[in-house]
Amino acid sequence: MVLTNEQRLTESGNLSFIILVSFVAALGGLLFGFDTAIISGAIPYITTYFKLDEYMLGWSVSSILIGCAFGAMIAGVLADKLGRRVTLMICAVLFAVSGIGAGLSTELYSFILYRLIGGLGVGAAAMVSPMYIAEIAPPTWRGRLVAFYQMAIVLGILLAYFSNYMFSDLGANSWRWMFASQAAPSIVFFLLLLAVPETPRWLIMKGRKKEAEKILEKISEGISIEQEVAEIEQSFYSENKISIKQLFSKTYRPVMIIGIMVAVFQQITGINSIIYYAPVIFKEISANGSSPFLQTIAIGVVNVLATFVAILLVDKVGRKKMLLVGCIMMCVSLVAVGLCFQFKYFDHYIVLVFMLLYVASFGCTLGAVVWVYLSEIFPNLVRSMALSVATLSLWLADFAVTLTFPIMTKQLGTAITMFVYAIICVLAFVYMWMKVKETKAKSLEEIESLFIK
């Protein structure tokens, strides 16, 4: 009887090790989701407390994303110098400081400062967590395990929604407790990271071959350790450091452009307008003051369930097909929501239904698959720096969407805003259909040969 690679891992007991360490690394996504979504419930309170108009509200909500952009910029350097695991531990500390500091703020400038600090952690974790998982997971499990990261993000978002709901009745200072509550999962994340190893590819990059071999013995799918080490060493063929200019040279430019475009499209199709401003949108169509928070929790639950679907399908269906289907379903949902606002038709929870369909479509496609794709398409030699650039582009796109959403809805109306996002979904479909290459079931070194000729 010939055993499959998955059966070998299962029988050796190593699969449980791989899942465990991937789960711990993925918790960076939980902090990411919690830190970014907690603002949704705090918006009504901080608007009143800090006397914000639509412009300053957009800045207060989106300021974290400037921190994310800087976090993405420095994460590659930190991840290469200190290691993937230590960088994630630094992120955990930044998450805790941000939540407590924002909750104690009495001036807008200090509130925004702590949001920026949280953004540094979010931006770095968004790059390093998927990279850690991609570098430690075997090819046949990599898609599912990196999708754990998106699962952690949506669980963090859902946890933030529940936190908002629990603290919403504490009066004018409810928002302080909402932000401070993120310190608890931050501490848990930090402690769990103490128990996981560094990735074998980082260890080989640093010349620590013996340590890398011990880890590879636990995660390899039947391939000899010597052969795998040789392939990884070969991928680090250049002893010269790669500069940003070289990153966009003829060799790497095609894969860089694809990575940046996929990252940007994940954000400019509008998802975080829904995540951050969901209670505001629901309040616009509901006379029940408590209803917006409950409906927002429904979005969080659907997001989690959709990500389970992504984990089940990403290594079976493939990355490209899921991205294309997601663009179509998101476009249809956004058009439907836009029409509801255009004609003021809010009966029978119709807006909620189509918003849930939109979130579900995003969660099981672009939400999870983009992180998988970004974590695996860049060559070993440039992965840290390339991921930094792609993730930086993602956060800048997120910042643009989050900053402009309250302005667009105020000046153009919610209907037109939704139609704009729907058009962007169409553009994303066309680009991905033409440019995205399938990477399913390929090793990182095999994927490298797809893009680097």
UniProtKB/TrEMBL annotation:
<dbReference type="Pfam" id="PF00083">
    <property type="entry name" value="Sugar_tr"/>
</dbReference>
<dbReference type="GO" id="GO:0022857">
    <property type="term" value="F:transmembrane transporter activity"/>
</dbReference>
<feature type="transmembrane region" description="Helical">
    <location>
        <begin position="17"/>
        <end position="43"/>
    </location>
</feature>
<dbReference type="InterPro" id="IPR020846">
    <property type="entry name" value="MFS_dom"/>
</dbReference>
<dbReference type="InterPro" id="IPR036259">
    <property type="entry name" value="MFS_trans_sf"/>
</dbReference>
<dbReference type="GO" id="GO:0005886">
    <property type="term" value="C:plasma membrane"/>
</dbReference>
<dbReference type="InterPro" id="IPR047984">
    <property type="entry name" value="XylE-like"/>
</dbReference>
<feature type="transmembrane region" description="Helical">
    <location>
        <begin position="145"/>
        <end position="163"/>
    </location>
</feature>
<dbReference type="InterPro" id="IPR005828">
    <property type="entry name" value="MFS_sugar_transport-like"/>
</dbReference>
<feature type="transmembrane region" description="Helical">
    <location>
        <begin position="386"/>
        <end position="408"/>
    </location>
</feature>
<dbReference type="InterPro" id="IPR003663">
    <property type="entry name" value="Sugar/inositol_transpt"/>
</dbReference>
<keyword id="KW-0472">Membrane</keyword>
<dbReference type="InterPro" id="IPR005829">
    <property type="entry name" value="Sugar_transporter_CS"/>
</dbReference>
<feature type="transmembrane region" description="Helical">
    <location>
        <begin position="175"/>
        <end position="196"/>
    </location>
</feature>
<keyword id="KW-1003">Cell membrane</keyword>
<feature type="transmembrane region" description="Helical">
    <location>
        <begin position="414"/>
        <end position="434"/>
    </location>
</feature>
<dbReference type="GO" id="GO:1904659">
    <property type="term" value="P:D-glucose transmembrane transport"/>
</dbReference>
<dbReference type="InterPro" id="IPR050820">
    <property type="entry name" value="MFS_Sugar_Transporter"/>
</dbReference>
<feature type="transmembrane region" description="Helical">
    <location>
        <begin position="55"/>
        <end position="79"/>
    </location>
</feature>
<keyword id="KW-0813">Transport</keyword>
<protein>
    <recommendedName>
        <fullName>Major facilitator superfamily (MFS) profile domain-containing protein</fullName>
    </recommendedName>
</protein>
<feature type="transmembrane region" description="Helical">
    <location>
        <begin position="349"/>
        <end position="374"/>
    </location>
</feature>
<keyword id="KW-0812">Transmembrane</keyword>
<keyword id="KW-0762">Sugar transport</keyword>
<keyword id="KW-1133">Transmembrane helix</keyword>
<feature type="transmembrane region" description="Helical">
    <location>
        <begin position="86"/>
        <end position="106"/>
    </location>
</feature>
<feature type="domain" description="Major facilitator superfamily (MFS) profile">
    <location>
        <begin position="21"/>
        <end position="440"/>
    </location>
</feature>
<feature type="transmembrane region" description="Helical">
    <location>
        <begin position="293"/>
        <end position="314"/>
    </location>
</feature>
<feature type="transmembrane region" description="Helical">
    <location>
        <begin position="255"/>
        <end position="278"/>
    </location>
</feature>
<feature type="transmembrane region" description="Helical">
    <location>
        <begin position="323"/>
        <end position="343"/>
    </location>
</feature>
<comment type="similarity">
    <text>Belongs to the major facilitator superfamily. Sugar transporter (TC 2.A.1.1) family.</text>
</comment>
<feature type="transmembrane region" description="Helical">
    <location>
        <begin position="112"/>
        <end position="133"/>
    </location>
</feature>
